[in-house]
Specification:
Blueprint lengths: L1 H14 L7 H17 L30 H13 L4 H9 L2 H4 L4 H8 L1 H17 L3 H17 L7 H5 L10 H13 L3 H14 L5 H13 L3 H14 L5 H15 L2 H13 L6 H13 L3 H13 L6 H13 L3 H13 L6 H13 L3 H13 L6 H13 L3 H13 L6 H13 L3 H13 L6 H14 L2 H13 L6 H13 L3 H14 L4 H13 L3 H5 L1 H7 L6 H13 L3 H13 L6 H13 L3 H13 L6 H13 L3 H13 L6 H13 L3 H13 L6 H13 L3 H10 L6 H9 L1
Helix pairs in contact: 1-2, 2-4, 6-7, 7-8, 8-10, 10-11, 10-12, 11-12, 12-13, 12-14, 14-15, 14-16, 16-17, 16-18, 17-18, 18-19, 18-20, 19-20, 20-21, 20-22, 21-22, 22-23, 22-24, 23-24, 24-25, 24-26, 25-26, 26-27, 26-28, 27-28, 28-29, 28-30, 29-30, 30-33, 33-34, 33-35, 35-36, 35-37, 36-37, 37-38, ...
Length: 740
């Protein structure tokens, strides 16, 4: 206890030294005091970072007064003989030399001398460096301590009290805590940094505005909205008072979509009320915020007012407005702003032109994009790879990937270094043109240039192979993604699920869907594809079991999903469940579409409930939906099966009046209805009309006519039908007809 008390006393004496005006005197004062302090340490407080520990003769460092008694001289001699001090530590305190201090590592010191002795020694070093204005050294030593705390899973919240020099004279440690906040914030330990701020306030310390702004910036970058707002309000209430940089940080946070336009305006007004003059960065941030929320016109008006009052504007202000106009599709308005900035003496930069090139090429005006590239060159502005990539993308959208590839090669020859984006644009372009061989070669070249394909590149290729085949290539690419640790996008997974469903591999589709559910990535399309696939395989019950999973993940079933389920149960002759789902659809607020109405109409028709089918058909029209060819055909077929050819014929004529495409199924339904009533004249008339309208009778049409003529004993007419269909019907179908 005595040694610890002695150490604290000496440390207090040491840290009471004041910085003198002359830097040389400062160094000499610290050197003498530090040497004296170290000599008063007992063995337990000596620490050494160097492998060799050598005795140090410090007699030359102390000016012993001749009047000192023999007893004190003997005591000092014993101290010299007993103490073995590290030359490194002596050099640190004598010269405040950073190269010497760099050898001090907290982990090694703690391992050799224990935690408490090591942290006391580091506290002394940190405070001395802080008083000497050695900011970088203070930061580095604190970072070393914090790093060790993190590695050891220790509670770093205690560091404030440990590093506090003296509660009675805490102001001496304010610099230390400024840097401790910065160290914590830089290492994403934002709660710890805020705790230092709070404890400093409670101790009566006035932290610097720089450290508070740095913490505020880190909170903004990590979107810690509540902490950010609390710190900002505390600074306004108790200090340090916010300055122009504080307000700019807050304005930047507001402008990234975290607050509305009114909040942004209020913050800027508050800043000016408090006497803080906005900088050009502040203004450009404010303008960017206005453009981000879509108020580009107001941003432009603000810039014009700044120019008229000789306010601060720069190229970034104009770039924000140009980008905002391009996003809105007002490309020629953006060009006017370009001319306006030139007239104000502000030269556009590479970003200005790149924004415009991207805008015009995105909207298909590749020629204007090329003109802007030429204008850049004339203005001695070298187009970047981003500028050219936008142009290449525009050319690819014109389905001229061959030209894009030529430009790409010319850029490489001119010394441009290809990047991931340029390759991805070209690969997507070739996939759009279904030239998958070229797309695959480009990806292989991309990998050979040490550029990893991103998820969007894989998605383009997978979509291409799913469209043109072979599908096995799409699956191989998907498995390659997983093997290389590239997380597929939701869209890519959905494409693969759709492939599995189309190929009838429902177990693989369900397995992938379950993996997506685990990751929280399954969306409406995922469930739609799987449910539709299961229903087509006659597994409607299993498909229905997915509805609770969807609702649990806040994915509401769409009309497409309900239509698949209703149709699935209807085709399994489970009309009761189909109609139950139809009612449930209404209960959860899903409005039926034409498809859903048609499925239900079909159910009624198959059950012979034609009155209900007809009423539902009328209700569909009353609700503003236009019946399509399938809706009309379904209800016509129902009436034909019931022998109500008058209503069926009326609906058929209505189809013609509405210019709805007549199909072979529509004609076949009517032919079947008339044949059942032995009205072969009407059937033959419809057969002739169908041919005149360019609609070819199918196997079902011929089968009905053949069977019905044979039923009525019209053998010659039946054989005529058989001979007529020989050209277009396959032999197997003909055999089936003869046997049927």
């Amino acid at each position: 206890m005595r040694s610890i008390a002695r150490f604290c006393f000496v440390e207090r004496i040491l840290l009471q030294l004041r910085v003198v005006s002359d830097l040389k005197c400062l160094s000499r004062a610290y050197g003498t005091a530090a040497s004296s302090a170290l000599l008063l340490l007992d063995d337990d407080h000596v620490f050494d970072n160097s492998p060799a520990v050598v005795p140090v003769d410090v007699r030359g460092e102390i000016n012993v007064q001749k009047s000192v008694g023999r007893k004190r001289r003997n005591r000092r001699s014993r101290i010299q003989r007993k103490h073995v001090l590290s030359p490194v530590v002596v050099r640190v305190f004598k010269s405040l030399n950073w190269e010497a201090a760099r050898q001090l590592k907290f982990s090694r010191t703690k391992k050799k001398y224990g935690f408490f002795r090591s942290i006391d020694a580091f506290r002394m070093v940190v405070n001395v460096f802080a008083l000497a204005g050695m900011d970088m050294e203070v930061y580095a030593l604190l970072r070393d301590i914090v790093w060790y705390y993190n590695k050891s899973n220790w509670d770093a919240f205690d560091l404030f009290s440990i590093l506090l020099d003296s509660p009675k004279d805490a102001a001496r440690s304010v610099v230390v805590f400024d840097f401790l906040i910065k160290v914590f914030a830089a290492n994403s330990m934002l709660e710890h940094a805020l705790d230092v701020f709070v404890q400093a306030k409670e101790t009566g310390l006035e932290l610097s505005i720089r450290s508070c702004n740095f913490l505020l910036k880190c909170l903004a970058e990590t979107n810690r909205r509540e902490f950010l707002w609390s710190l900002f309000e505390e600074m306004k209430s108790t200090g340090p008072p916010p300055n122009v940089y504080t307000y700019t940080i807050m304005l930047n946070f507001y402008c990234k979509g975290n607050f509305g336009e009114a909040d942004i305006d209020e913050l800027l007004e508050e800043m000016e009320r408090n006497g803080e003059t906005p900088t050009v960065v502040t203004y450009s941030t404010y303008i960017y915020g206005l453009c981000r929320v879509g108020n580009v016109e107001r941003a432009l008006d603000f810039v014009q007012r700044l120019i008229s009052t000789n306010g601060l504007v720069n190229v970034y202000c104009f770039n924000a407005i140009i980008q905002g106009l391009c996003i809105k599709g007002k490309l020629y308005g953006a060009l006017k702003v370009l001319e306006g900035m030139k007239s104000c003496g502000i030269s556009p930069d590479v970003y200005t032109y790149s924004i415009l090139i991207h805008g015009f090429c995105k909207h298909g005006d590749v020629k204007k994009g090329l003109d802007l590239i030429e204008e850049m060159k004339c203005s001695n502005i070298e187009p970047s790879l981003v500028s050219y990539s936008s142009f290449i993308h525009g050319v690819c959208k014109k389905r001229r990937s061959d030209i894009s590839l030529g430009i790409f090669r010319d850029l490489g020859a001119a010394g441009y270094k290809y990047d991931q984006t340029a390759y991805s644009i070209l690969i997507k372009g070739f996939c759009m043109q279904e030239d998958l061989d070229s797309a695959v070669k480009l990806m292989e070249e991309m990998v050979g240039n040490n550029l990893a394909p991103d998820p969007s590149t894989f998605e383009s290729l997978i979509r291409g192979f799913c469209k043109t085949g072979p599908l096995v290539n799409a699956l191989e690419l998907f498995n390659m993604m997983l093997k290389d640790g590239i997380l597929p996008t939701i869209a890519t997974c959905n494409v693969i699920i759709d492939v599995h469903c189309r190929e009838g591999r429902m177990e693989e589709a369900v397995k992938l869907m379950n993996e997506m559910q685990t990751l929280g990535n399954a969306n409406l399309f995922t469930y739609s594809a799987v449910i539709n696939g299961l229903c087509k395989e006659g597994k409607s019950e299993r498909a229905l079991e997915l509805l609770p999973s969807m609702l649990k993940r806040n994915v509401l079933p769409s009309i497409v999903i309900f239509s698949s389920l209703i149709d699935g149960f209807a085709k399994q002759s489970n009309s009761r469940k189909a109609l139950m789902l139809y009612r449930r659809m209404f209960k959860i607020g899903v409005t039926p579409d034409v498809v859903a109405y048609t499925i239900r109409i079909n159910i009624f028709c198959r059950r012979g409930r034609m009155c209900e089918a007809r009423n539902l058909f009328k209700k569909m029209i009353e609700n503003g939906m236009e019946p399509d060819k399938i809706s009309y055909t379904a209800v016509i077929a129902g009436f034909c099966r019931n022998g109500d050819m008058k209503t069926a014929s009326a609906l058929f004529n209505e189809m013609k009046q509405r210019d709805i495409l007549l199909t072979v199924v529509t004609y076949t339904s009517l032919i079947f209805g008339y044949c059942k009533l032995n009205r072969f004249d009407k059937a033959d008339m419809l057969m002739g009309e169908m041919k005149r309208n360019g609609i070819t009778p199918d196997v079902v049409t011929y089968k009905i006519l053949f069977a019905e003529h044979r039923r009525c004993g019209n053998r010659d007419r039946a054989l005529e039908m058989l001979n007529e269909m020989k050209k277009g019907i396959l032999p197997d179908h003909m055999n089936n007809m003869m046997l049927g």
